[in-house]
Amino acid sequence: MLETRTLTKSFGPIHVTKGVSLRLEKGERRVILGPNGAGKTTLFNQLVGELTPDSGTILLDGADVTSLRVADRARLGLSRSYQKNTLFDGLTIGENLGLAAAVALGKGQGLWRDPLQSAEVRETVREVAAQVDLAAFLDMSVKAVSYGIRRQLEVGIALATRPKVILMDEPTSGVGPEMSKGFHRLLKALPRDLTVLIIEHDMDLAFDVADTITVLNYGEVVFDGLPEAARQSQMLKDIYLGAWEDA
Ligand SMILES: Nc1ncnc2c1ncn2[C@@H]1O[C@H](COP(=O)(O)OP(=O)(O)OP(=O)(O)O)[C@@H](O)[C@H]1O
Question: Where is the ABC transporter domain (predicted)?
Fold first, then answer.
């Protein structure tokens, strides 16, 4: 469903992505682990099209998308939930979801004043709100809700585009432990045919949610396999210098 072949990217003398080859099957839930500066976000930026790799190939559902723009990749089913907030504060949660759905459904024109006037958009909003546990919050202004709810909404906005593949950059960062557990539950309840790639620092989440784990270190894939094997890997314990014990 999503594949990279020997993806390479440097910033000046710094090699940030070194020959990264990944292959995610349809419905696979893959967590990317790696210490700060390992190149996780840079890899995501190349996958969605915000950065152009120096060399290598990105395939989405078999099609070479390496030189496609962000919007064109999104139309082919690649969606990203951002670590930074990308919400419209002056709108309600429902309207934020509605706008994302409207644009993805090609109904963006003229819907800015009321994205929820289309029945198809309202249906998508209803389904996505249930998926990210926000059904009770639809009429609330984004300004009025907690940070954790905003993070859930960011995932909802990515889902509202009806993606085949969703990329999430640290969905639980800055979220308290209780809310984080709720996030685990909702991630695990996502449709099984949705392919999910998550950057995560939280080992708990990684081992709880992942079908497979990829570890990046200095821009290189140093582990690619099942969570149980990752848990037992001495090399990974060394990379994380004891962070494993928190898992
Ligand atoms: N636009 C840029 N120009 C120069 N260097 C960059 C740029 N973007 C990232 N880097 C460098 O690339 C390296 C990898 O950064 P990246 O943000 O991808 O790592 P990361 O694994 O996502 O880290 P973190 O876990 O801290 O978010 C870092 O050394 C960073 O300083």
Answer: 2-243
What b-and-e string marks burial along 123-141, b requiring 16 or more CB atoms within 10 Å of the CB?
A: ebbeebbebbbbeebbeee
> DSSP 3-state assignment of 27?
coil
For 196, list phi and psi in degrees, rounded to 5.
-125, 130
Q: How far is the CA of 111 from the centre of ligand 1 (A)?
A: 37
Across the range 173-198, mean pLDDT stands at 89
Above 70 in pLDDT, residue 107?
Answer: no
Stated pTM of the model? 0.89
Determine the 3-state secondary structure of 51 from DSSP. Answer: coil
* C-alpha 37 to ligand 1 mean position (Å): 5
Give the model confidence (pLDDT) of 208-224 as tens digits.
Answer: 899 999 999 999 999 99
For domain 1-77+163-218, the CATH architecture is: 3-Layer(aba) Sandwich (3.40)
- Pocket test of ligand 1: the residue of 8, 10, 40, 54 to mutate, having most ligand atoms within 8 Å of its CB, is 40
| Boundaries of every domain in the chain | 1-77+163-218, 87-161
